């Protein structure tokens, strides 16, 4: 079935922006927008395009083949290509320089591969621009650290109490153990010292 064959090929091209699709950037900073693509059968004259809020093109490049670096078709002056497509991961990431609050929104990394019957795939990143790293995040972090710290503190306290109880039990048992050890001449497991047998051979107390 030729139709089924084409259907299978379209899924061979895959675009990814990593584990998380949200990026936070400080106002007036430079931010990396990551994107990689993979293809099972290779690529020829592959075109990749970055869009802002679905319609506004901010970068477009073309890659002839695996051995060649991308060539720029069009680029926004504030966008810089930082990827590398001659290595394994086919990195087509960009940097957006001097971000402003108006840059917040949806960024789409779109790839079209003529070698796979013009198969297309895209992935999206959501950019948030902030004046400073928000206080609420720090509060949440402090609460999490406090809770985790409290749990660790309880755990340490529990371990110390456990150790103290075991120490007391050991001390009370040591008195009994002395009697058992002194009555057994060949038991040297108490401390493993060479002289332990000699000490144990002392006559038992009446």
Give a verbal description of the structure.
It is a single chain. The strands form 3 sheets. Strands 2-11-10-5-6-7 form a 6-stranded mixed sheet, with no helix packed on it. The chain has a 3-stranded antiparallel sheet with strand order 3-9-8, with no helix packed on it. The chain has 3 helices and 11 strands; from the N terminus they run H-E-E-E-E-E-E-E-E-E-E-E-H-H. It has a domain at 19-130: Immunoglobulin-like (Sandwich), CATH 2.60.40. The protein is α+β, with helices and mostly antiparallel strands. Mean pLDDT is 78; it is low at 3-10 and 176-199. 30% of the residues lie in helices and 30% in strands.
Determine the CATH topology of one domain: Immunoglobulin-like
Structural class computed from helices and strand pairing:
alpha+beta
Q: What is the averaged pLDDT score? A: 78
Order of helices and strands: HEEEEEEEEEEEHH
Principal-axes geometry comes out as elongated
Strand order of the largest sheet: 2-11-10-5-6-7
Number of beta strands: 11
Beta-strand content estimate: 25-35%
Number of helices: 3
What is the helical fraction, as a range of percent?
A: 25-40%
Segments where pLDDT lies below 50 for 5+ residues? 3-10, 176-199
CATH class of one domain: Mainly Beta
Instruction: Report the sheet with the most strands, covering strand number, pairing sense and barrel closure.
Output: 6 strands, mixed
Subcellular location: Membrane
InterPro entries: Ig-like_dom (IPR007110), Ig-like_dom_sf (IPR036179), Ig-like_fold (IPR013783), Ig_sub (IPR003599), Ig_V-set (IPR013106), Myelin_P0-rel (IPR000920)
Membrane topology: Single-pass type I membrane protein
GO cellular component, one term: voltage-gated sodium channel complex
């Amino acid at each position: 079935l030729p139709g089924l064959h084409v259907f299978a090929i379209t899924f061979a091209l895959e675009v990814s922006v990593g584990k998380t699709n949200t990026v936070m950037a400080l106002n007036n900073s430079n931010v990396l927008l990551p994107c990689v693509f993979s293809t099972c059968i290779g690529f020829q004259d592959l075109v990749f395009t970055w869009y802002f809020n679905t319609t506004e093109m901010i970068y477009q490049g073309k890659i002839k083949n695996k051995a060649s670096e991308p060539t720029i078709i069009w680029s926004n002056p504030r966008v810089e290509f930082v990827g590398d497509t001659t290595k394994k991961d086919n990195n087509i990431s960009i940097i957006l320089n001097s971000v402003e609050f108006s840059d917040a929104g949806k960024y789409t990394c779109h790839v079209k591969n003529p070698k796979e019957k013009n198969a297309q795939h895209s992935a999206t990143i959501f950019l948030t621009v902030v004046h400073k790293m928000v206080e609420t995040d720090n509060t949440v972090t402090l609460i999490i650290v406090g809770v985790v710290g409290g749990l660790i503190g309880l755990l340490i306290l529990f371990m110390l109490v456990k150790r103290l109880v075991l120490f007391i039990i050991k001390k009370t048992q040591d008195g009994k153990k002395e009697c058992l050890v002194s009555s057994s001449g060949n038991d040297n497991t108490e401390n493993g010292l060479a002289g332990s047998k000699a000490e144990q051979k002392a006559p038992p107390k009446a």
